[in-house]
Design a protein that fits this description.
By secondary structure, this protein is an alpha/beta fold. Helices cover 47% and strands 15% of the residues. It has a seven-stranded parallel beta sheet, with helices on both faces. Strand 5, helix 4 and strand 6 form a beta-alpha-beta unit.
């Protein structure tokens, strides 16, 4: 049976993707920083592993424990919503270490086995914010835009080796833990200069007003991930959710 390794399975798209692949008979290596056996149904096809994508040793241990994988889904990521001037340097580096370099290191770790077999699929979960600039999301957007460009180049590089590379671009999905995690990070951020206050309040108000609409459903993103893994003929970029599809048009 085929095996998929998915990062960031503690909530949101990663968790739902793991359930989706399990339901369809795949062997699933579900990774997260703090493994929780209660999140996924018991199965002899489920392998729950501890993994921190910002730690190269943690990545090496998890990939070795996973064994051969047919597909890698890079889903782990963190968000940030703030004026750039109020973002600490260490936070900026953490965003890129997780969203960008974490993706790079995961791929570097699995490529030798895929290259040896001349087969494999790599799916990087990015974001629709890379399709349209939004205020207060400059570092998160930049970290994901880097993943987009990297993936497009890597697709050309790996195709002759029989390895497929795809991008999934989810739209806004307030129901995931992603936004909660971002707010927890921002709680410790320096106070934003008052010059930004009116604009920030306006942007945050608009986001709150749209929060309940959930233009992107988890099943939209999971289907895009499933298609990216299983459909060799699908396009390189797969927008997921009505808002993401509209932006990509």
């Amino acid at each position: 049976m085929p095996t998929v390794m998915i990062t960031g399975c503690s909530s949101g798209f990663g968790l739902e993707a793991a359930r989706h692949f399990l339901d369809r008979g795949w062997s699933v290596v579900a990774t997260m920083r703090t493994p929780d056996e209660t999140l996924l149904p018991p199965s002899d096809r489920l392998h729950l592993l501890q993994l921190d994508v910002t730690d190269r040793d943690s990545i090496a241990r998890a990939v070795q424990a996973a064994g051969p994988v047919d597909a890698l889904v890079n889903n782990a990521g963190i968000g940030w919503l703030s004026a750039f001037e109020a973002t600490p340097d260490e936070t900026a580096r953490m965003i890129f270490e997780t969203n960008t370099f974490g993706t790079f290191e995961m791929i570097r770790a699995v490529l030798p086995q895929m290259r040896a077999r001349r087969a494999g699929v790599i799916v990087n979960v990015s974001s629709s914010v890379t399709l349209k600039p939004l205020p207060l999301l400059q570092l998160y957007t930049a970290s994901k835009a880097a993943v987009n460009a990297y993936t497009e180049c890597l697709a050309l590089e790996l195709a002759p080796l029989g390895i497929r590379t795809r991008l999934v671009l989810p739209g806004q999905a307030p129901s995931t833990r992603f936004g909660t995690n971002a707010r927890a990070l921002m709680a410790d951020a320096p106070e934003t200069p008052t010059d930004y206050a009116p604009f920030t309040q306006e942007v945050m108000g608009a986001m709150m007003a749209n929060a309940g609409k959930e233009p992107t459903r988890s099943e939209d993103v999971v289907y895009a991930i499933w298609r990216a893994v299983t459909d060799p003929g699908c396009p390189l970029r797969l927008p997921a959710g009505s808002d993401a599809v509209a932006l990509a048009a």
